[in-house]
DNA sequence: GTCTATATGGTGATAGAC
DNA sequence: GTCTATCACCATATAGAC
């Protein structure tokens, strides 16, 4: 995982990243102070500013880790053996699993979607911001393409507005940052079962077949 | 629509409420200053503090309006003629329509779900907070009950984990605060079509029948 | 690398004139 | 009811010792 400046992530940077993700998740970006992050590290804010130029850069790095985890999980699943609807299913299951595994980071990703352009950004931050928006679009695009291919193959309904369908389905997966709690499903197996149940609802709906 | 203190909503209160909802949506609760709200009103913050004791009380009132709109829309739809799956469909369509109509307020509701208990609350604010949590649970409960009834009637699959299914489906509806933009679907009819397409995906999934 | 100041600015909330 | 002025506080970010 590389930072915005292309430097490899040092050990202390990773620790800061995890502390920040936890704080941002619990209190939100604006309500989190650098002192909060430092306190969670058991240190002072000098160390944070030694590794990150600003709070926003820190936020961007947390976002980047979360989004990279999603993109990576989904594209690996996409390249698996499945085709058509089976491929979409594999993507969604991997997606949901990543939502659980990187829970704090994905919570921050969800906040980042809402991040406005009001706060002043340096050119470098602006670049990071644009990159994040692009990565978000890329994720959605992967799903759209796969659903369209499945439509051609006849394993997904042809009468579907793909854009709306994908947005709605991804909403079902992403919203889990709101209600899912790590304490509830600790084992990998429990998480996988949950992911399967969620994806099952999204692919088949409520109606009996 | 009544405020937390039970007073009827005056005209100026309503204006403040709308301005606050817009600001909270655009910048988030913590990044919004009372000056921002006042500026959107074309006034100064004296007027805001004349009507609301604190920023958090203002937030709670915005949240309350948004949540009341959802509860009201969904429970009216529930009491309609439909039964079983048709009733769930009517609830979801009304739900989605309310998400659009009260877009700014529902955006704040989504933020409120994340609102932490860290910030100090007065006993009265604490009471509001608990009431909001309860209203959120009530909304989910309405869906769970209706889905279970539909299961008994055989119009919804019996093999479904109702709690997970409802959370996932509501995620699909609620996430629209993230991607939906008022400019895109101005007419009531365009909105209704969008709502129907979203609900169609949630009830039937992707697979052809 | 990590710490302790501290500069600097913004924000919630209040006081009090009109 | 609405304004101006102001207080008290907190948070970002920096400087500089060790």
Short summary of the structure?
Chain A is mainly alpha-helical and 209 residues long.
Give a structural overview.
Two copies of one chain form a homodimer. Chain A has 209 residues and is mainly α. Chain A has two domains: 11-52, Orthogonal Bundle (Arc Repressor Mutant, subunit A); 55-204, Tetracycline Repressor, domain 2. The first copy, chain A, contains ten helices and no strands. In chain A, helix 1 (11-27) packs across helix 6 (103-114) and helix 4 (55-78) packs parallel to helix 7. The longest helix of chain A has 31 residues, at 123-153. The N and C termini of chain A lie far apart (44 Å). The mean pLDDT of chain A is 94. At the A-B interface, helix 8, helix 9 and helix 10 of A face helix 8, helix 9 and helix 10 of B. The first copy, chain A, binds a DNA duplex (18 and 18 nucleotides) through residues 12, 33-35, 43-47, 49-51, 53-55.
By secondary-structure content and strand pairing, the structural class of chain A works out as mainly alpha
Annotated CATH architecture of the largest domain in chain A: Orthogonal Bundle
Annotation, overall tally of beta strands of chain A: 0
- What's the end-to-end separation of chain A, in Å? 44 Å
Strand-residue fraction of chain A?
under 5%
Largest contact between protein chains?
A-B, 48 and 48 residues
Shape of chain A: elongated
| Assembly classification | homodimer
> Radius of gyration of chain A over alpha carbons?
18 Å
CATH topology of the largest domain in chain A: Tetracycline Repressor, domain 2
Number of domains of chain A: 2
State the low-pLDDT regions of chain A, or none: none
CATH homologous superfamily assignment of the largest domain in chain A:
Tetracycline Repressor, domain 2
The main pleated sheet of chain A reads as: none
């Amino acid at each position: 995982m590389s930072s915005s400046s292309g430097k490899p992530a040092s050990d202390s940077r990773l620790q800061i990243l995890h502390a920040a993700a936890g704080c941002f998740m619990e209190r939100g970006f604006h309500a989190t102070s650098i002192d909060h992050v430092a306190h969670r590290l058991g240190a002072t804010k000098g160390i944070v500013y030694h590794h990150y130029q600003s709070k926003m850069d820190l936020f961007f790095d947390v976002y980047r880790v979360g989004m990279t985890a999603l993109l990576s999980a989904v594209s690996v699943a996409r390249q698996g053996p499945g085709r058509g609807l089976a491929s979409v299913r594999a993507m969604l299951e991997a997606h949901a699993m990543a939502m659980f595994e990187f829970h704090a980071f994905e919570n921050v990703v969800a906040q980042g979607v809402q991040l406005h352009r009001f706060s002043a950004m340096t050119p470098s931050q602006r670049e990071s911001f644009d990159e994040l928006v692009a990565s978000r679009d890329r994720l959605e695009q992967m799903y759209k393409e796969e659903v369209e291919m499945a439509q051609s193959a006849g394993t997904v309904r042809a009468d579907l507005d793909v854009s709306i369908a994908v947005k709605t389905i991804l909403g079902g997966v992403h919203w889990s940052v709101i209600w899912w709690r790590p304490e509830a499903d600790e084992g990998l197996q429990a998480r996988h079962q949950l992911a399967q149940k969620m994806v099952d609802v999204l692919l088949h709906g409520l109606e009996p077949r």
